[in-house]
What we know:
Distance between the termini of chain A: 59 Å
CATH superfamily of the largest domain in chain A: Response regulator
CATH architecture of the largest domain in chain A: 3-Layer(aba) Sandwich
Strand content of chain A: 15-25%
Largest sheet of chain A: 6 strands, parallel
Order of helices and strands of chain A: HHHHEHEHEHEEHEHEHEHEEHEE
CATH topology of the largest domain in chain A: Rossmann fold
Number of domains of chain A: 3
Oligomer: homodimer
Radius of gyration of chain A: 25 Å
Amino acid sequence: MKLTINEIAEMAHVAKSTVSKAINGQKGVSESNRQRILEIIQQVNFQPNVSARALAQSRTGAIGIVLPHSVTSLSGTFWATVVSAVAAEANRHNNSLMVISPQEGEKLKLETLEAIINRHSVDGLIIGAEQIQSQTIMNVLLQDIPFVFIGKNQFLDHYAVDVTNRKSALNVTEQLIARGYKKIGCIAGPENFKYIKERVQGFKDALEKAGLVSSGTAYSDYKKESAVKAASDFFEQHKDIDALFLAAGGEFVLNVMEALKSSGRDLKSIGLGVFDDNRIFDFLDCSIVAARQPIEKMAQCAANMLFEIINGNPPEKKYNCFDAEIIQH
Amino acid sequence: MKLTINEIAEMAHVAKSTVSKAINGQKGVSESNRQRILEIIQQVNFQPNVSARALAQSRTGAIGIVLPHSVTSLSGTFWATVVSAVAAEANRHNNSLMVISPQEGEKLKLETLEAIINRHSVDGLIIGAEQIQSQTIMNVLLQDIPFVFIGKNQFLDHYAVDVTNRKSALNVTEQLIARGYKKIGCIAGPENFKYIKERVQGFKDALEKAGLVSSGTAYSDYKKESAVKAASDFFEQHKDIDALFLAAGGEFVLNVMEALKSSGRDLKSIGLGVFDDNRIFDFLDCSIVAARQPIEKMAQCAANMLFEIINGNPPEKKYNCFDAEIIQH
DNA sequence: CTGAAAGCGCTTACAG
DNA sequence: CTGAAAGCGCTTACAG
């Protein structure tokens, strides 16, 4: 019942090595044999066993994606889109996609990473860059497995896809200005992250271009409490702002909104510039300008880069930046 | 450099079959040998090659999850949470999780499914039930691979996890009534889906209990245009409704909201009962009661059921229903 | 308990 | 071009 390359060889009256060559499109099979073999294969719907092939080639035909455990609300959309797009791309390359998700509240652990590598579970990794926090892990990666970062990335010297942060931030802020806002503040993620620096810079670029001055900038890490507190403090100190540029996406936006709400301000009374778009923004009674990252494109690009590396043709361009589309809500 | 079971055997001065037994916790290894072997393994951080093991055991140690290609906004959250939870559960069982995502705008194709099965890429499948639309596919599944459905499910005779639809719908509707709404309509997904029937029934239960009559029920499929149109028509015909129970989740909610908005009604002027909760609802200027599905729990349950089937102890209880939590926004 | 051997289903030199 | 053979790194009867 179980179909293997042996059965096919028998049916085609050739050696299994010949069948193998035919399947893999290699030289060394006569045209007539090739045709006959492929016909039979199609007829009986034979597919080579992935484990056997992986073992023989020492290549699994799978890539992995490392994503955050906690993907709620806004950031859920981002990751679901990435996973979908990468899965499709892997499929195009006749590969499969393995999901690697750290434990609750944790980042990728050295132990987990080493298990993946030593077991040879995947040929390469796509990594949500914020998952990497230690240099040790970075070193293990660099040494033992091909990988590319996706999104926010603090290790800019490696393969990665990202968004044109400074430019997009500038564009968003300019739209806020065009809407008539004049006292625009900024609440950002961790100050030491390069992409945060870039976005804040873009924000300032726009103000300067328009001859405005910044109404203050606050930084915070991504923990819910920290973000809410940072935002609350900011509102306390800057009661006169009429708009806000948020130099971080996903849940961060909701955290700031929460602070805004509990500070007693009406959402409606303030203009908001955010990263990452979401269809729900259409229904928020609130003036929003969003930078929509081309998530699918970015994910596809990351996957393609990874396959190039795996296949031994690493792309010369290590860092791929995409423009965000500015969406008016 | 590459570590295999042979190296370990050499280091421990035993046969590799003995090492294998030690690793897999089988009988037939002296205590002293076992200890020595395991110590060495830990020391050199040896992990058996998954492909080799898979080939030898004809068991891949991987499960697959089939999810919709298009996971935007609201439904993105649902699937991201499911994937995360299933990945964690697979990990607990020392398995990995493979993502299978149909092409743009398509459901799971027979061809794809057969490739997965014939290639022996995974030991079992978790399937977003709405991915299955043909009886043919259902038959292939039933015959060739263990699987369990997650969420909305029209094939209730197979392993599945779901939400207590009727009861949750009743609870949501009761909360709307408690808020003072009296003219409550219902917009639902496809009428022939069993879970839609159940939710609509729960909606009616609540009205009856409160001595109210339904202000109309509309059905629609899940395509964006259909849903928007169905909702628009409904609003046209029922101008006097003050609340709406939506017997479907995810994007469906946004589609109805869109229709509501373009029909000229203020979101604020209407009460909304929805399936699937979302943190963003807190910021919608709108009276919302949501049934929050315990997504993580459901996903865990599905994964555990699948592993029981794979391991040859299929659970006696095929259908696992979870209560939704009622969230007031 | 212990280990030599066969086998899982492929691929890949290699000799013909 | 063709095929017999060895090998990928494990597991699993089986004989001792």
